[in-house]
Amino acid sequence: MSASPIPSSTPVIDVRDLAVRFTSDHGEIEAVDGASFAVREGEILGLVGESGSGKSVTATAILQLIRKPGRMVRGSILFGARDLGQLPESELQEIRGAEIAMISQTPRTSLNPLITVGEQVARLFVLHAGLSKAESRKRAIEMLTLVGIPEPARRARQYAHQFSGGMCQRVMIAMALATSPRLLIADEPTTGLDVSTSARILDLLRDLGAKTGASILLITHDLGVVATTCQRVAVMHAGQVVEIAPVRSLFRKPAHPYTRALVRSIPRIDRVITMEPVPGSVPSLLNAPPGCRYAGRCPWVEERCRREKPALMEIEPDHFVACFAVEDGRANPV
Amino acid sequence: MADVAPSPATVPTPTSAALRLLWIRVRRNWLSTIALAIIAIMLIAAVLANWIAPYDADATDAEAALQGMSLQHLLGTDIYGRDLLSRIIFAARIDLTVAFGATAVALVIGSTIGAISGLYRGWVDLIIMRCVDSIMAFPAFILAMAITAALGNSVTNVLIAISLTQIPNYLRLIRGEILHIREMEYADAARVVGNPAWRLVFIHLLPNCLPPIIVQATLAMGYALLTMAALSFIGLGIQPPQSEWGSMTAEGAQYIVTGEWWLFLYPGLAIVLMVLSFNLIGDSLRDFLDPRMRGIR
Amino acid sequence: MPTLCEVTDLKAHFPLRGAGTLLRQLKGGAPQVVRAVDGVSFKVEDGETLGLVGESGCGKSTVARSLVRLLQPTGGTIRFDGTELTGLSKSDFDHKVRPHLQMVFQDPTASLNPRLTVRRMVEEPLKLHTPLTAAERRERTAAVLEEVGLGVELADRYPHELSGGQRQRVNIARALVTNPRLLVLDEPTSALDVSLRARVILLLEELRQRHGLSYLFISHDLATVRYLAQRVAVMYLGVIVEEADAAELFDHPAHPYTRALLAAVPVPDPDAKRDPFVLSGEIPSPIDIPEGCRLRARCPLAQPTCAQPVPVREVAPNHFVACHLV
Question: What is the ipTM of this complex?
Fold first, then answer.
């Protein structure tokens, strides 16, 4: 028995059976294979996976920015009532940056080095809200204050290179939230930042999410970030979404074999544990075989796992897993 | 970085698969393949000139003078009755020798000095770069003219002149690459492992500077050819009776008005074809020599 | 346990150059210096792992590079296995020290020469420092590749033909091939994926125990350091602010900086209580370092006495803190 994880209230964004492929000389790379998840109103959903899991490609697909040699081969991305995959480019351009905003891993290179920071933020108000130059400059300083930049009026006159990495990321957040988007996609926003700076950026995201009512899709590989910042988590492995659960359930009772192995493989700062590495290695996405992509690494694998792809099944309220072993009860949740 | 199993593309392949990949690359880079074929043909023709050319380059035949293309003389004859096709084939020897030779000399000398400059920096770098700046202040052709005029007209002197004007290019190129690569982590790793300076440069750094040099070298060969032809055209460097495409084109220019257009066209075409071929193989050659590109492009 | 490596008062000062600084000097200002490492002392005991932690700009990488002579320290001494390193000539250092003191780098891709095969890179230290014949080198290379978990069939591959985890193992193999006594590891797992880190960490620990190696493990990943290190030193702006046995440091951090650092690490447990101890502002630049305690401007507990030179106190057996207030 399976059910797609659609919550009762309309989610901000509802991704269903998303599949993205890239063409290469040697065949097709199925970067995302049937991913389904939803981001609800006002929540922070963590999308966890390692590199090669397809999480960044998923974010790019949501914004409909996949270009050759990649393409979205199936699936729907419902933003409210509209399917982003079906919209013309002109409508998408109005949505991008305004209703769905994104911040990336490299804040410094996302900022224009030639114009002042204040100017960059102000332009967004001119463009999307039609404000006058004076008004938008004022709003820009307000946004900089909101994201916690000290001496915002003075800093607004400075250039990107005069900002530290953490400050640049704050500016990016300011720019992303300037248009009061409904969804903010944060793609590994703390990469390259120091531990203490990361902590503050994550706190900021959490606070601003609550304050502005924006939902956040937080893409990360760090389970610690997920535990401290997200309400719900979707775990991806080799292009497939394998588990979706509230954060407490995920850590208390991880169901999917991959999630379980992952949780046991990370060292902790609060105690010394016995680390067990995740078995096997990420399978090649090139001409990938059908079935569950964790099959090659899974201790509970069966013939069926290699032929059929398990669908997401609700094993507990709001806790979904895509695994035959869990379905059959062979791999009992911890 | 995921520990993704390396895709079949990057794992060494058995012969049949390797051949198939080669065919993909040939098909994708068809232009470069043609260019490579042209160069290969010219090289072979130059080497085997004695056996391939229908006539001796200097064999005169007064009765066959200034004849157009015919079955006996595929590209026609000149005023002395010498077969144009044979002259072009023999001339290839000089042209290709100087083109390859000048480029090779300039590359070796330029790279060595450039590597020293980039590695040691400080005063050494300062002095070398100012010398390079002085040389580059002269237009390259004027410099080549001056050197050839000073040294005298001969194949060797033309080679020297052209390579001297080319040295600064390789020098700066290598210096720039070295400045960049010496900061890379594998350069640090090579130092920590205990490599002396010479091994660092020749085994670790220079081989990784190859890509831009290769492209530059192929372009430069075309340039060398053109310079040599231009020098002959204006009366410096290689002069008749030595056959060289440039001087042949110069001679042939006089005969256009009298209607013997082949004497100008074919040597000129030879130059064009060679220079074009050199330019076209540059990128592909660079990719071919890069171990990372094996199996993909 | 005998001390394998003792670093005393290590300093690495870099004078600033450029047009701006020239102008400043002409106007009569003092030459500006980046004091990346400003008086660091620590010991690595035989067969032990010392973790050196800190955030960007603290100088930990500079310490590592000074140890393996990728740069020359401007002051202090480094005693390794009884020999004073700072005075040695380049060739003495290369031949006498390097076979015993090796380094594993952070980025597995960037630290491997893309044009050399695995075999050539792993054999190179043997070629440079040992009198082994070609056959003996091959044998040793095969042995060390096996040890790090790479099949010998990978020896003739190029780095781009290997996965990220495999490349890092090549890095480790190259460092181990001459049987060193001390390995300096500069963030060896930071560039690796989460599921790979466990493997590499376990491998490093296994190798250390099997060969009696010592590690200087430099990282900003505190959880990994907790797992691997017996002793930990925390650096901030060029100096060590706290040093203790690993369990002691993580369970009872004394220095405000250590406390703030530990509080900032996200724990993979949604119910874990977070210590709300937070420093204000950002890490200042290592150019204009204030007198007295370097954390003064950011520390919530700062007092007027913190402007005085900082004493080092032993707050618990073998637990040292550089702070006025403990």
Answer: 0.87
